[in-house]
Specification:
By secondary structure, the protein is mainly alpha-helical. It contains 19 helices and no strands. It folds into 2 domains: about 325 residues, no CATH class; about 70 residues. Keywords: Cell membrane, Membrane, Receptor, Transmembrane, Transmembrane helix.
Length: about 475
């Protein structure tokens, strides 16, 4: 056993030794022979991690399409995401003629039907907090289904946007096993939610078995009491009660899965930002001044920023509904804590249920806000670049900050620069000769125009005023 472990360590670390030797040779290059290619080689060489030695196809397994497959398969058990999942290399497709699509549509029709029964039953009697809670729970399931079905319909395009970013970042260092992290996160939270839901129903069913002499009467009491909005209108049936119980399980899954899905999307975005942050950190350490390297990093950051906006656009409705549902049920739980709880089991259930709800909200905020935290790390690494390695590409990279306030300030500065330029050009037209040429300008005016040229972005140099545009062309702006 010791010999085997020693051999694994020796042969596995051989890659690290060879990498160190290559790095040392590159560092001993004389100043006369040193060029940009040496810098690029040092920049591309990185220390292999243990995950790259032990995991097969770790790059492919960390793609968004592969990472999200397990959560989608988990959701398809409860009629979510009726999208076709083929083989490993086959892309995800949306198909109308697919058995999962039929299962999903039937579930949605049953949700809407039961929601109508709930609303009718609620307005028949005097509305209470409990009645409103049932209505909100059923309404949330219907709205969540519609939002996820809309996302499923455009899922292929959504995956393509991720693939564009991942294609350009395929050579980035692998930080962690994202697929394993997502699977563990989804499994753990959904398992806890399932256990909590099962224990509640088991306790209620046990109470019915204690009160009724036979199992048939116990199930009848359980179903009629839990779903009285149905069995007040339709006669009791065991199979109908079982179907409604499964629909209730689906709605409970939807509520928990929505929180988990927001966490997974935040984790996937944070992973890509971490890769970029790590590469920027390594680049600043070795003081790379090559414009090509920084231009590549800036373009990758722009792609990730655009992906963040796309994700926000697709998930904005889901996030709002998710937070509203969680906030409402937190208030309901706090309201329920005001009454006396004589049973120990009831007290334990309250604390477990309320704690799980707070845990989900906390995790959702943490994983969702991690994207902003990673952006701050990137900004910090850029601020630590030495003066000798600083160049224009870094300044452009810092300009693309994910923040509304900074964009507003930048626009105000651009407007001021345009106003100042407009005033200068108006003064030139008033004072000057119509045949004014660039050779008649003083040296100070040249410097001012050149300075304004550097401060104004390239995209807003086209002026709508024809006279001003003609004068700018003469000034070579």
């Amino acid at each position: 056993m010791v010999i085997r472990i020693s051999c694994v360590i020796i042969f596995g670390s051989g890659i690290h030794d060879e990498w160190q030797e290559t790095s040392q040779i590159l560092q001993t290059v004389s100043s006369s022979a040193y060029n940009v290619e040496n810098t690029m080689q040092l920049f591309k060489s990185f220390e292999p991690s243990s995950s790259q030695l032990l995991l097969k196809s770790s790059v492919n397994s960390n793609t968004f399409a592969e990472t999200i497959k397990f959560p989608i398969r988990l959701a398809q058990i409860f009629s979510y995401f009726p999208i076709y999942i083929g083989k490993q290399d086959e892309p995800l497709k949306f198909k109308w003629l697919y058995w999962r699509m039929g299962y999903s549509c039937v579930s949605f029709l049953l949700f809407v039907t039961e929601f109508i029964f709930v609303v009718v039953e609620a307005f028949k009697n005097k509305l209470t907090i409990i009645d409103i809670k049932v209505v909100v729970f059923h309404l949330g399931a219907v709205v969540q289904y519609i939002l996820f079905f809309k996302l499923t319909y455009c899922w292929s395009k959504f995956i393509k946007e991720w693939s564009k970013v991942e294609l350009h970042m395929r050579n980035y260092e692998i930080i962690e096993n994202l697929k394993l992290k997502v699977a563990c996160l989804a499994s753990s939270i959904m398992f806890i939610a399932g256990v909590e839901h099962g224990l509640v129903n088991a306790y209620k069913l046990k109470d019915c078995f204690d009160k009724e002499p036979t199992a048939r009467e116990a199930f009848q009491t359980f179903f009629t009491y839990a779903y009285e909005h149905i069995f007040h209108v339709i006669g009791y049936s065991f199979w109908l009660g079982s179907l409604i119980q499964f629909l209730n399980l689906q709605r409970t899954f939807y509520w928990s899965y929505t929180d988990v899905f927001v966490m997974l999307m935040g984790s996937a975005l944070t992973y890509r930002l971490k890769q970029l942050s790590q590469k920027i950190k390594e680049t600043t350490k070795i003081r790379v001044n090559d414009m090509v390297v920084w231009k590549t990093l800036r373009k990758d950051y722009i792609r990730i920023s655009e992906l963040c906006f796309i994700v926000n656009e697709k998930l904005s409705g889901i996030i709002i509904v998710c937070f509203l549902m969680d906030l409402y049920f937190v208030l309901v739980q706090l309201y329920g804590s005001l009454r006396n709880m004589d049973s120990v089991i009831e007290k334990v259930y309250f604390f477990l249920s309320f704690g799980l709800l707070l845990l989900r909200i906390f995790c959702m905020c943490i994983y969702g806000g991690a994207v902003y935290e990673e952006w701050k790390n990137i900004k910090f690494h850029l601020s630590t670049v030495s003066t000798s390695a600083y160049n224009a590409e870094m300044r452009f990279l810092q300009f693309y900050g994910i923040g509304k306030t900074e964009v507003d300030v930048a626009l105000v500065q651009v407007e001021k620069a345009l106003a100042a330029l407009n005033d200068d050009c108006s003064n030139i037209e008033d004072d000057g000769d119509p045949d004014y040429e660039e050779t008649d300008m003083s040296t100070s005016d040249d410097n001012e125009v050149a300075l304004e040229k550097e401060e104004i972005p390239q995209k807003i140099k086209k002026c709508k005023n024809n006279k001003l545009s003609g004068r700018l062309e003469k000034l070579n702006l």
